[in-house]
Amino acid sequence: MATAHTKTLSRIMNLPSIILLFIWMIVPLGMTIYYSFQRYNLLTPQRRGFNGWFNYEFFITDPAFFEAIGNTLLLVSGVLAITIIGGVLLGILLNQAIVGRGIVRILFISPFFIMPTVSALIWKNMLMNPIYGIFAHIAEFFGADPVDFFAVIPLLSIIIIVAWQWLPFATLILLTAMQSLDQEQQEAADMDGASTLAKFYYITLPHLARAITVVILIETIFLLSIFAEILVTTNGGPGTASTNLTYMVYNRALLQYDIGGASAGGIIAVILANIVAIFLIRAVGKNLEA
Amino acid sequence: MGNIVLEKVHKCFGDVEVIPSVDLDIKDGEFVVFVGPSGCGKSTLLRLIAGLEDLTGGKIIIDGVDVSDSTPAKRELAMVFQSYALYPHMTVRKNIAFPLKMAGMPQDEIDKKVMAAAESLNLTDYLERTPGLLSGGQRQRVAIGRAIVRSPSAFLFDEPLSNLDAALRVNMRIEITDLHKELKTTMIYVTHDQVEAMTMADRIVVLQAGDVEQFGTPLDLYNKPVNRFVAGFIGSPKMNFVKGKDADEFDAHEIGFRPEHMSVSTTKGRWKGVVSVAEHLGADTFLHVKTDEVGTLVTRSDGEINVNYGDTVYVSPNTDKIYRFGADGLAL
Ligand SMILES: Nc1ncnc2c1ncn2[C@@H]1O[C@H](COP(=O)(O)OP(=O)(O)OP(=O)(O)O)[C@@H](O)[C@H]1O
Ligand SMILES: [Mg+2]
Predict the structure, then answer these.
(1) What is the CATH number for A164?
(2) Exposure winner among A52, A120, B17, B155, fewest CB in 10 A?
């Protein structure tokens, strides 16, 4: 019973955790905002002081900045497209009654447990290496020229690696949703003369809308800050062809020792993430209601 | 047209034989009800007819065409499921229109048919709602609407009213009966409920463990049950059965008499007993009488009789309404 008394009581009981979470969030954010307005380079730490909007101006007018934003969005949308389309198709496959389904499912989920650095290194050295990678061997077997993935299509290569890592997550969520699809609805559609494709489009897909929304929202949060895969494969290059915002901030702070500039970049990344979040919630959030 | 013939229909799930062998001939326009105890294979038989399960053996013939291997859609039957199985993301209008859309009918014709169905089922005010926002009875009507729009050759119902409350059930029962009178289409209806079976059916199929025990009109089943199982299954409260010397007297292994064919007296009668349960319903009185000789007997008397728990009474069967059974359970 939600009486006035229990409500006040529950608010008081909630207070400590809310305060803790708030501090947890606000202190780093406040410090980042503070540094973003400071002139603070680790190479010249004595020249500190208020810097106005200079750090922001400097970060934004960097020619790499818009490319980094573009790369960030491409990376997010590319991985989302692959994981969701692939996840739906694999979910349908894994939802069939096949022999050893349990084992297949576990095998299938395992890429998700591999550390990003490890998987990126495996992709880089064992699969995509232009000289001794498996893809190069396959290409040679068919008489084609091996592709130097990270030199020619650096961003796409990273998208493929990250998509490989996230595909199991998407598949797992979508498979679970498919399993909750009402059998009688499918049978009713059979009686109504719906083809397999029509059943997928009119019944399965709407049923999956909520799960797809969850996948999009969760993946976006993580994909906006992809870092390890870029660090161990391309280092953001060639040039800035595979630099996303996270990597650009890292570059500022730890390669150029510019704490002020990196903080400004961090705040810009937060703002960008919020803009993306607003659009996403607008676009797909209604699926989560009711 | 909707003449449905089952020939030696046989169904196993793995090693489990659910339907040994069923032969049925359902005439065009008939309202046939399947009844039987839980797990006897009513739903399975219906789903076999619908094409939702594959036959293990035998044939299903609809209007002279062997459809044993046809897909559900090809059989042109419509089914109403117990859970209604409405499409939750579609509005009522789209739900009802779905089979027509799948059949590739032009949109203006679809609209016309949907409106006609919605009007006959009182659904016009709800066309733009999704099923989640409807009451149980309304959902039921949408499911029926979805079934009638494409003018199937027969309707299949699997316990369609079991999720509704008692009052609504009575209403829907009448609506479905009216619908049958209006459409004159074959209907096959599965139910647990005796009253539904007796009131709606032209003919009733009584099933037990996948076998057809009897196929006949409701009053046939009531008056001339072919065996002890049908006699005990049809009628509520259940028929009383007595063996031993009382049965010998009638030259039978066992005799049965219905509760409504018994008389109760406080002074004299065939068996003496003590009332263990007395149900006074106003219009009827049900008594459970514990006798020393033949166990507990149930009686049903018209109106109110002034007998209560613990009273001693005498009960006697109406001798010209006695059913006689042989040792094999068949009626004599
Ligand atoms: N897919 C299946 N696999 C194995 N056995 C099944 C399957 N479907 C049904 N059965 C079995 O077949 C028998 C008949 O089931 P069915 O659903 O036809 O019974 P029913 O008469 O409809 O019962 P109820 O009145 O409880 O709905 C049951 O013993 C059931 O366990
Ligand atoms: Mg059933």
Answers:
(1) 1.10.3720.10
(2) A52
